[in-house]
Write a structure and sequence with these properties.
The complex is a heterotrimer. By secondary structure, chain B is mostly helical. Helices cover 77% and strands 3% of the residues of chain B. Chain B has twelve helices and four strands. In chain B, β2 and β3 form a beta hairpin. The N and C termini of chain B lie far apart (42 Å). The chains are: A mainly alpha, B mainly alpha, C alpha/beta.
Chain lengths: 299, 294, 248
């Protein structure tokens, strides 16, 4: 398979997965930027395991998920029911701390990063196909899980918590437990993504895990639509792929374009391109039962 | 001991800047009813504009000052309609949408700074801004003009701000809106116009802060905005969003703590320690030390 | 004191000071006011009676400019004011003392009064002196935080604040709510006194008895429509009104 296609497909999968990692906690209005820190922490840990400890990739990937889960869970114990701005700041602070620690730790390459990760299965083609299969397998699995979540009672409770946390608590729903669950799920996912992301390039560098990533993911979610998981599925390939076609002078202003798009969407169409009504209509059409009155679940 | 005192002095001037930033941020929160994540980035953008003007006018301090203040006020006022458009109800803080929109603005500003100015390199300010040599020197302790400015301007600005808030007509309107926006409307206070006034005032503060930062740090980079933004908002959260006096206390404290730690531990790690301390406090008390105002 | 003896200011102006003609106001799908028409003439005390949710507050807030009517006309001193911003209406001479007083509890008495003069600062000093004349207790508590005032004092502060904008029409939403009966009597005396000084007063009340005893005319609001109107005496003696609102 041509290399550009490999990169596009694999990075798009990571973008979809990471957007979902932000999507899930945001269903209860938590912008859980900690996930970007999770990517870095698990990614570097896995790389260290493979490069210095010579552990197999599979083990390192599982460790990545586990580290993500552990970090996510521990932090969620404190901020499971915190206000959104606190969650945001905790995320940003963690990203900064994680980056600085990694930057100053020689064992994981410091500012130079880690290079020369071995091919999985010893062969470049096998490596690429393995990475792609794992990534898209994850996309299907996680997508399925989130879909079930969205259409479950827990999902509806999350929608209620998005609108009014206090009211939802008075309905007997444990906001803190919900927060812990959603945040831990996201961080687990993010940990695995961090590992896979580096292995796409067979290297790890701090530039992969910057504050820009936060902005990019936010753009994907809000432009695509934050009320349904399909928003990320549409936004990730399009918003990542189209700038690749731009000439380099314009492509270097990618972040500004993303930022402008984000602001524009919020001002003009805050729910994003794909809304729950739209999804419902498509689902109805596909089941050939004709158009019904859409329910008003997600805000 | 000398190191400690020297660093406390450093910390007071740094803290003065933090508390000014927090005050501007709180003002926007209380009166314009927005969470402006990118407020510090607007300040850094003003710093770049000061640098540009200084470059074109041969380090004319007066013009640089005017440019900094004017650009900050203008940038704030321009962002006002964007914020207004995403706010659902005029009578309350719409946290989610204003926060996200301001993050988008921050993205744009940070990337413009890292692309469009000085080919992405950090900018340096002329020494004349910092005022040259130390005024006082006692052993390791030296007090630089830049530090005196920072602290002095901080004191004057905060006093002026509180005088405005408690002794003038616009200040009364600000306080009324801060306490009860719909009540303020019933009395005939124009929410929109008063909100715009708060944007302008935050802009004025921002311009001053840009100057002080330029004098104190001597340089700026696109990453500065993000770093400072996180610290300022962390300070606001710790003090309790909307808590003006709390913001002063915590902001000053952060400056002093940061500087003292810097005195004993090298560069980047001292920054990390500051962040770790803030992280721990927020994890322990996500609603702030003194409770939420909103 | 009988109402008609106490008030010496007789309503004589042919053009109403405030007029709502067939005003409809809706919040989303709910019609809070439906084709409501009322008139308030200069020098009158007019009272709006009705149960909770009848639309009294909506009517007063619409007259102030908080709500824009979906249909109908509102005019003040002959000029249409439908859809005009609140601060402009306040400058034109309308003011509202909201239910629950609407004072700023964390600000001082003086600051609250000055807020009332926000749109008319030139004469603030003069007006303040006059308010202190009428309400000496406010002068005594000038620098105290409003939160420390008693219920009756807060109502006086709210009325005093309204007076600071030198209004022609004072609207009061439920002046007696939450106040002890003795204090309520004081408040209504104040209202009568202000009327004698030349202020036109439109008030809404659940306590129909005391309100009608001090007013010239009244309107009965039920679920957003004007069900009945007439002179105060007429309404006081109307059997339907007596049964529904006077507890007779």
């Amino acid at each position: 398979m041509p290399l550009p296609l490999y990169y596009f497909l694999s990075i798009t999968a990571v973008n979809i997965l990471m957007s979902w990692a932000l999507y899930v906690p945001y269903r209860m209005a938590h912008l859980h930027f900690l996930v970007v820190a999770n990517m870095a922490i698990s990614g570097y840990a896995a790389a260290y395991m493979v490069l210095s400890l010579h552990l197999p990739f599979g083990l390192a990937l599982l460790a990545g998920f586990a580290i993500g889960a552990a970090v996510g869970f521990l932090v969620a114990l404190f901020i499971g029911d915190a206000p959104t701005f606190a969650v945001v700041i905790v995320g940003f602070t963690f990203i900064y701390i994680a980056r600085t620690v990694i930057e100053n730790t020689e064992a994981v390459g410091g500012t130079m990063g880690l290079f020369g990760l071995p091919n999985i299965g010893g062969d470049p083609a096998v490596h690429r196909w393995t990475i792609l299969s794992i990534l898209y397998g994850l996309v299907l699995l996680v997508g399925f899980l989130i879909h079930r979540f969205d259409h479950s009672q827990l999902g509806r409770a999350a929608s209620a918590a998005f609108i009014d946390k206090d009211l939802t608590t008075s309905l007997g729903i444990d906001i803190r437990k919900m927060g812990i669950l959603l945040q831990t799920f996201s961080c687990t996912l993010a940990g695995g993504c961090g590992v896979l992301y580096g292995f796409i390039y067979k290297s790890f560098h701090l530039d992969y895990f910057t504050f820009h990533v936060v902005g990019i993911l936010m753009t994907f979610i809000f432009v695509g639509g934050y009320t349904t998981l399909w928003g990320a599925v549409l936004a990730a390939p399009v918003l990542y792929g189209v700038p690749l076609l731009f000439p380099p002078e314009i492509a270097s202003w990618r972040i500004v374009i993303y930022g402008a798009l984000l602001v524009l969407v919020l001002v003009l169409k805050p729910e994003g391109v794909i809304t729950t009504r739209f999804v419902y209509r498509v689902e109805a059409l596909l089941s050939r039962k004709g158009l019904k009155q859409p329910p008003s679940t997600n805000p | 001991m000398e190191v400690f005192i020297a660093q406390v002095i450093n910390g007071i001037s740094l803290g003065s800047i933090y508390l000014l930033l927090v005050t501007g941020f709180n003002l926007l929160l209380l009166v314009a009813m927005i969470i402006h994540f990118a407020y510090p980035q607007v300040v850094v953008l003003s710093m770049y504009i000061i640098w540009l003007v200084l470059g074109y006018t041969g380090n004319n301090l007066l013009l640089g000052t005017l440019a900094g203040v004017a650009s900050s006020i203008l940038l704030n006022l321009i962002s006002a309609p964007l914020f207004q458009k995403v706010m659902e109800k005029r009578g309350e803080v719409d946290i989610n949408s204003t926060m996200v929109v301001s993050m988008g603005m921050g993205m744009i500003i940070t990337d413009v700074l890292s692309h469009g100015f000085n080919k992405g390199h950090p900018i340096a300010f002329p020494d004349t801004l910092a005022g040259g040599d130390a005024i006082v020197r006692i052993g390791l302790i030296s007090i630089l003009p830049g530090q005196v400015y920072a602290f002095g301007v901080g004191v004057v600005a905060v006093s002026a701000f509180f005088w405005l808030l408690y002794k003038t007509r616009p200040g009364r309107a600000f306080r009324a809106i801060a306490e009860d926006p719909s009540g303020a409307r019933l009395v005939g206070i124009p929410l929109l116009k008063t909100g715009l006034q708060s944007y302008a005032l935050s802009g004025l503060l921002g311009g001053l802060i840009a100057l002080l930062l330029a004098a104190l740090l001597g340089s700026a980079s696109s990453a500065l905005g993000e770093q400072v933004a996180i610290k300022v908002i962390a300070v606001s959260i710790i003090a309790g969003l909307g808590n003006l006096v709390g913001g002063l206390v915590v902001g000053l404290s952060l400056g002093i703590v940061e500087a003292v730690v810097q005195g004993y531990i090298s560069g980047t790690w001292s920054n990390v320690i500051a962040f770790v301390i803030m992280l721990v406090v927020i994890l322990a008390k996500p609603n702030g030390l003194f409770g939420l105002k909103i | 004191m009988e109402p008609n003896e106490a008030t010496t200011a007789q309503p004589t102006a042919p053009q109403p000071l405030l007029a709502l003609e067939n005003v409809t106001v809706s919040y989303g799908h709910v019609n809070a006011l439906k084709n409501a028409s009322i008139q308030v003439f200069k020098g009158e005390i007019v009272v709006l009676i009705g149960a909770n949710g009848a639309g009294k507050t909506t009517l007063l807030e619409t007259a102030l400019g908080i709500n824009t009517p979906v249909s109908g006309r509102i005019s003040f001193k002959g000029e249409p004011i439908g859809g005009v911003a609140v601060d402009r209406n306040v400058r034109a001479g309308v003011c509202l003392v909201p239910e629950g007083r609407g004072i700023f509890a964390s600000m001082s008495v003086l600051d609250n009064l000055l807020l009332g003069a926000h749109n008319n600062m030139k004469n603030a000093g003069k007006h303040r002196e006059r308010v202190y004349e009428w309400f000496p207790i406010l002068k005594k508590r000038e620098h105290q935080i409003a939160r420390t005032l008693s219920g009756g004092e807060r109502q006086m502060l709210a009325i005093g604040r309204a007076l600071m904008s030198s209004p022609e029409l004072i609207m009061v939403d439920e002046p007696s709510i939450g106040l002890a009966p003795i204090v309520v009597n004081d408040i209504f005396s104040i209202i009568r006194m202000l009327n004698q000084e030349g202020y036109t007063i439109l008030l809404s009340e659940q306590n129909a008895n005391k309100a009608l005893k001090c007013a010239h005319r009244g309107y009965v609001l039920e679920t957003g429509t004007v069900a009945l109107s007439g002179t105060a005496t007429h309404l006081l003696n109307d059997p339907g009104v007596r049964e529904a609102y006077l507890g007779a």
